[in-house]
Write a structure and sequence with these properties.
The chain folds into 4 domains: 93 residues, Uridine Diphospho-n-acetylenolpyruvylglucosamine Reductase, domain 2; 119 residues, Uridine Diphospho-n-acetylenolpyruvylglucosamine Reductase, domain 3, CATH 3.30.465; 113 residues, Alpha-Beta Plaits, CATH 3.30.70; 83 residues, Alpha-Beta Plaits. The protein is built from 17 helices and 19 strands. α1 runs antiparallel to α3, α9 crosses α12 and α13 packs antiparallel against α15.
């Protein structure tokens, strides 16, 4: 206890008392995830204002042997940004005060931002210079760039622009001993050894704390053409995707699919959301084209491609957005799925990726596997169909979940059977959410001993005492446990 008191006093002296939160009433918003599924104590929360203060906080925690939990907007779906219930409670390093956009270089199509910048603020700053930061998520109004980088976030624009990893040029990182690596280079070509930034992107704060990033920008699309349609079935959806890819090439910016149950939940639980079509169908797809010009041509191309699909018997109904307001309204439906699911019940969110050609088989086989365990269970599907990322969600009402004799075991069995299907189709159990706490057992189950050994070797080299976000990403074997010796 004396060591913790000494550490807190040292942190207050270094960062200022207002940057160190210790009262339980102040900690609650940082120690529980936004869905209320994970909660554990923390030693304190520190809110540094710059990289030097992050470095100082890490150095002090390391000197006292106290684990360090980096935290951004706390929008994780897998328990990666809140404490785990084991060992010494960590010091949470929350980066929300580090929200400065350092510069936008339109000529170089790059910008430098601090890790606490909210994604929407980064998008807006780029747009002000007629540039696009292409990563787009449902949580973009609250998630932070540091968290996006730490999890290699995906989202709705991966089809055209790639994951977060594909939109980063350089990083600044505080390492486990408090030293700072400045890799904030805005270069497309730098062939001087290992590209170290890729060690930290997707590492979920287990190798270092990302404090700033140089991001890749693109020309800002000025014209969009969007439609919402109901495909005849799953097979038709994949054929329609192929038609759009052939006809539109790089103009195809998004191809997002939800099932009937997901749309019902959005309409029922989120105000001002309505079904865009005349009736509910089993599957609904949002498709968008985007470019820097040729708006009339894109609208014609969108309509022609839909008409071709309809003539081939692939589409049951469709509506085209006539203006920006209608476009925004249709996107709001897609971006409301997490809010709706949280309000409606308990969704066992999975984050599988399979080859696009295997999406139909994955959904059909996973549905059979889940209902073999819980007959008749609701299934919610949200898919970034263009890149093969399917959120297949076994869904319980709150009452049904409470009625389960062993909800933890049932939830684990359901997730495992879905992930097994993805694995047999040469897929992954995590496409964009990360591993966090939820996926630790899956890492141990699906990753080969060679892969795990390589990851542990990197962890050992950069954080030999396992102080950075312990209990996340990597299964425990061969890792020291802070506070459990």
């Amino acid at each position: 206890m004396n060591g913790v008191v000494t550490l807190i006093a040292a942190l207050q002296a270094e960062l200022g008392s207002d940057a160190v939160l210790t009262a339980q009433s102040d900690l609650d918003g940082f120690t529980e995830d936004w869905r209320g599924r994970y909660k554990a104590p923390a030693t304190c929360v520190v809110q540094p204002s710059n990289t030097a203060q992050v470095s100082a906080a890490v150095r002090l925690c390391a000197a006292h042997g106290v684990p360090i939990l980096p935290q951004g907007g706390n929008t994780s779906l897998c328990g990666g940004a809140v404490p785990a219930n084991k060992g010494i409670p960590p010091v949470i390093v929350n980066l929300s005060r580090m929200r400065r956009i350092r510069y936008v270089d339109a000529a170089n199509n790059s910008m430098e931002v601090e890790a606490g910048c909210v994604l929407k603020a980064v998008q807006d700053a780029a747009a002000a210079e007629q540039r696009l930061y292409a990563v787009s998520l449902g949580a973009e109004g609250s998630c932070q760039i540091g968290g996006n980088l730490a999890t290699n976030a995906g989202g709705t624009a991966v089809l055209r622009y790639g994951n977060t990893r594909d939109n980063v040029l350089g990083l600044e990182v505080v390492l486990a001993d408090g030293s700072v690596w400045n890799g904030l280079r805005a270069l497309r070509k730098d062939n001087t050894g290992l590209d170290l930034k890729h060690l930290f992107i997707g590492s979920e704060g287990t190798l270092g704390i990302i404090t700033a990033a140089t991001l890749k920008l693109h020309p800002l699309p000025t014209h969009h053409a969007l439609a919402w349609f109901a495909p005849a079935d799953l097979a038709a959806t994949l054929r329609i995707l192929g038609l759009f890819q052939a006809a539109c090439g790089s103009r195809l910016a998004a191809f997002e699919m939800i099932n009937r149950r997901q749309l019902e939940l959005v309409v029922e639980h989120v105000p001002n959301r309505r079904n865009p079509l005349g009736q509910l169908h089993e599957w609904h797809v949002l498709v968008e084209l985007a470019d820097t010009g040729g708006g009339d041509q894109m609208e014609a191309l969108l309509q022609q491609t839909l008409e071709q699909a309809a003539a081939d018997g692939l589409i049951l109904d469709a509506v085209l957005a006539a203006n920006d307001t209608q476009r925004a309204t249709l996107w709001e439906i897609r971006h409301s799925v997490s809010e709706a699911n949280k309000k409606a019940g308990v969704g066992l969110t999975t984050d599988c990726a399979v080859p696009v050609s295997a999406v139909q088989a994955f959904i059909e086989q996973a549905t059979r596997a889940v209902r073999a365990i819980v007959p008749g269970l609701d299934i919610v599907v949200v898919a970034h169909l263009g890149d093969g990322n399917v959120h297949f969600i076994p869904f319980f009402t709150f009452d049904a979940w409470r009625a389960l004799a062993d909800s933890d075991a049932t939830g684990a069995a359901l997730r495992r059977c879905v992930n097994d299907v993805a694995y047999t189709l040469y897929g992954s159990f995590s496409a964009e959410h990360g591993v966090g706490q939820t996926g630790l057992a899956e890492m141990a189950h699906y990753k080969s001993p060679t892969e795990l050994a390589l990851m542990h070797a990197v962890k050992q080299a950069l954080d030999p005492r396992n102080l950075l976000n312990p209990g996340r990403l990597l299964p425990r074997h061969s890792l020291p446990d802070p506070g459990l010796d």
